[in-house]
Amino acid sequence: MKPLLLLASLAAAALFAQQHHESVGFKDTPMLPGLPWRVHDIDRPHPAVVTPAAAIGQPPWDAIVLFDGKDLSHWEQRGRGADRGKMVAPKWKVTDGYFEAAPGSGDLISREKFGDAQYHVEWCEPESIKGESQDRGNSGFIIMSRYEIQVLDSFNNLTYADGQAGAIYGQWPPLVNPARKQGEWNTYDIVFEAPVFENGALKKPAFVTVFFNGIVVHNRKEIIGRMVYRQVGTYAPHETEEPLLLQDHNHPVRYRNIWVRKLKGYDQPEKR
Ligand code: MG
User: Are residues 86 and 25 both part of a single domain?
Assistant: First the structure.
C-alpha cells in the first residue's frame, strides 16, 4: 500500500473508532450519586464476558468446580487417631457421580478458601432413612466453615423450624419448604456476602441469598453469627476467605455437582 493511501486508511479508521465510541456512551451526562461514573458513561468498565453452561445448574465458564463426579481432590479432612492434628485425604466415598458422607469420619473441608461467592450444590437424602427430627439425614453446607445452610430430610420430618432443610441453622427458617423426598436430588444456589471485620470488630455482617430447588428461601438475609447449637451465634474475626465445609452429622447424605464462583470485585470492576 502506498504511504499516502495508508495514512488515509488509518485516519478513516481512527475517525470511525471515535464516532463509534461516542455512539455507545456519553461524557456530558450527570454523575451517578456516590459513583465515579456518569449516567451511560462511555468509560465505565464493562462486565466480564462469562460463557454459561449448556444447562442451568451446570458450572459456567468461570466457576471453580469442587466436585465434578469423579474425585475428592479439592477436599480434605481432619485426621483422627494417629493422624490427629494433620489434614488427610477424605474418607467420604465417591460412587457413580456422587459422593456420600462417611458417618463419624469428620467434616469434609475444601482445600481452597472463599469469601464473597456464588455456590451451587446438589444433595440427596438416603432412600432407606431412619431417625427423626435432627437425627434424620443431617448434614450441612457450612460457608466459611461457620455459617450453615442446613441439609436435612425435611420432606416429611418434623423438627424446629430454624433447623429444617434450607434454614440458616439456629437463626432463620427458610421462607418455604420445597424439599424433595428421600432418594431425589435437591439443589441450593447461594449468594454469600462475607462479613467484614475491622480492628478486631465486626464492621459488616454476612448476608446470604438462597434458592432451594429454584425457589428463593432467603433474600439477602442478615446472618446473626456463626452456627451454634442451642445458643445465639456471634461473630469472631476470621480471614476474608475461609474453606467451605460439608458437615458430617453421622448420616450418609449424598452430594454432587458442587461449584463456586468468587464474587470479589464483580461489582467494582475497576478494582479487580
Ligand atoms: Mg446440619
Answer: no
Backbone phi and psi for residue 61, each to the nearest 5 degrees, phi listed first? -55, -35
CA angle 147, 192, 51 (to 5 degrees): 140
Residues with Cβ within 8 Å of residue 207, at least 6 apart in sequence: 192, 193, 220, 221, 222, 223
Question: Measured in angstroms, how far is the CA atom of residue 135 from the centroid of ligand 1?
Answer: 10
Q: Is there a single domain that holds both residue 70 and residue 11?
A: no
Q: Is 55 a member of any domain? A: no
Distance 132 CA to ligand 1 centre (A): 13
Q: Are residues 34 and 83 in the same domain?
A: no
- 42 and 76 part of one domain: no
Q: What is the identity of the amino acid at 51? A: T
| Interval between CA 251 and ligand 1 midpoint (Å) | 10
More confident residue, 216 or 15: 216
For residue 246, the CA-to-ligand 1 centroid distance in Å is: 9
Same domain? For 177 and 250 the reply is: yes
Number of domains comprising the chain: 2
Residue carrying the nine cell digits 499516502: 4
The CA 16 to ligand 1 mean position distance, Å, reads 60
3-state helix, strand, coil in the chain (%, to 5): 10, 35, 55
Report yes or no: 212 and 198 within 8 Å, Cβ to Cβ.
no
Domain of residue 24: give its range.
1-46
Summarize pLDDT for 52-92 with one digit per residue, the tens: 999 999 999 999 999 999 999 999 999 888 999 999 999 99
Cα gap 8→20, rounded to integer Å: 18
